[in-house]
């Protein structure tokens, strides 16, 4: 075998996802396909995004497209936005600009974890945590969410922590369930991690995965664990709120409550670690565009209308759904309890959902609300009929 052990583990842990991605890759070329799989755009790009890119594509100096690290205007814009959103005193130096949330998560792992350390991840959760951890020579340890509400289960996190635990990953609003967790959850988690950090003689960090932070419904507020636990890093991606995941732009932010000595040590390590993990900075054009993009957003009320339309019709047809507080996903239990068979049956009729096997939840499925309203209306007769079928077996 030519693969390294960590590469083989990463490959095996994400093979189901990559196989599904390849299987679904032709849907965009099929005019009859009703695609609810990945969180991709189904309409032309937001004008604000196009305008921002267009206004910065023309070079203004001979160094316009030179190497870029963490560019001060981008850092300043992000820090100001975080101060407004989270009410914490972020400084520009707390911000590392990255190639989306992927880059921010990779940087966080490199900053505070050593080979063989354990990282607690939520289940169900984003399907790339595990392969990224394997690729970094880290050990994923699952902490199941509450099986009924999909709230963060503090007791499950406690059971997952060992003397080798270095990071606990949390995700709110949560992919795939859409749950938003309240401040009380973060306060309880902070107390738990303080206790275990002192017990094991080293600090356990939180990595707060917040790419959907600005996509929330029903006027629901948002609290970050960065306000409850100083040893918190936040990763963010603009690809969600811009619905442009192919334009890689994100950041890693340190909680400003972090003790000054540790805060300075991490801030001073940003550039060297970003270089070491493969020049982990966004390209010049994306960084120049940050000030303009900070106020650009997909139509969240329209997403909410899509959610309400699907939830109303599907629940009337007998589906068990988790009504999302945010994100652009809808999470449900498959009729009959076999998510893969259910999704295959829908696919045969031209309606494509993501099976819960992508999230190690074989009884469930996920719907992306980035599909158009026309797609939803065309798919609903097939979806509602499938919900009224008797359970398999």
Automatic annotation (TrEMBL):
Quote the Pfam families the UniProt record gives: Aminotran_1_2
What SUPFAM superfamilies does UniProt report for this protein, alphabetically? Answer: PLP-dependent transferases (SSF53383)
Cofactor(s) the protein needs: pyridoxal 5'-phosphate
Q: What class of enzyme is it?
A: transferase
Molecular functions per Gene Ontology: pyridoxal phosphate binding; transaminase activity
Q: What is its EC number?
A: 2.6.1.-
Q: Where is the Aminotransferase class I/classII large domain?
A: 72-380
Q: Which UniProt keywords apply?
A: Aminotransferase, Transferase
Q: Which PANTHER family match?
A: ASPARTATE AMINOTRANSFERASE YHDR-RELATED
Similarity-based family: Belongs to the class-I pyridoxal-phosphate-dependent aminotransferase family.
Please identify the protein, giving its name as recorded: Aminotransferase
- Source organism (scientific name): Microbacterium thalassium
- List the taxonomic lineage: Bacteria, Bacillati, Actinomycetota, Actinomycetes, Micrococcales
């Amino acid at each position: 075998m030519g693969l390294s052990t960590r590469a083989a583990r990463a490959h095996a842990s994400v093979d189901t996802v990559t196989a599904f991605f390849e299987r679904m890759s032709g849907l965009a070329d099929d005019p009859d396909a009703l695609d609810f799989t990945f969180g991709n755009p189904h309409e032309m790009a937001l004008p604000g995004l196009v305008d921002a890119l267009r206004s910065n594509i023309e070079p203004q100096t001979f160094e316009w497209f030179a190497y870029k690290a963490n560019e001060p205007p981008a850092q300043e814009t992000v820090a100001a936005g975080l101060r407004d959103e989270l009410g914490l005193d972020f400084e520009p130096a707390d911000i590392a600009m990255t190639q989306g949330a992927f880059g921010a998560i990779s940087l966080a792992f490199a900053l505070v974890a050593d080979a063989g350390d354990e990282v607690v991840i939520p289940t169900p959760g984003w399907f790339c945590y595990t392969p990224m951890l394997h690729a970094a020579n880290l050990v994923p340890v699952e902490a199941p969410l509450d099986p009924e509400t999909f709230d963060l289960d503090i007791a499950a996190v406690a059971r997952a922590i060992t003397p080798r635990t270095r990071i606990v990953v949390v995700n709110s609003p949560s992919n795939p369930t859409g749950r938003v967790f309240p401040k009380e959850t973060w306060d309880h988690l902070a107390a738990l991690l303080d206790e275990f950090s002192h017990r094991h003689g080293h600090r356990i960090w939180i990595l707060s995965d917040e790419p959907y932070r600005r996509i929330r419904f029903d006027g629901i507020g948002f609290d970050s664990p960065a306000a409850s636990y100083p040893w918190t890093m936040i990763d963010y991606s603009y690809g969600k709120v811009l619905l442009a995941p192919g334009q890689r732009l994100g950041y890693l932010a340190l909680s400003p409550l972090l003790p000054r000595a540790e805060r300075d040590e991490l801030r001073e390590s940003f550039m060297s670690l970003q270089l070491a993990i493969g020049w982990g900075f966004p390209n010049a054009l994306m960084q120049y565009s940050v000030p303009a993009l900070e106020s650009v957003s997909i139509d969240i009320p329209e997403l909410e209308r899509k959610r309400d339309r699907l939830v109303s019709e599907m629940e009337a047809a007998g589906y068990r759904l988790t009504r999302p507080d945010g994100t652009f996903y809808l999470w449900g239990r498959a009729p009959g309890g076999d998510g893969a068979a259910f999704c295959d049956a829908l696919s045969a009729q031209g309606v494509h959902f993501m099976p819960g096997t992508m999230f190690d939840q074989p009884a469930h499925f996920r719907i992306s609300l980035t599909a158009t309203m026309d797609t939803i209306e065309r798919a609903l007769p097939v979806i509602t009929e499938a919900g009224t079928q008797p359970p398999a077996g």
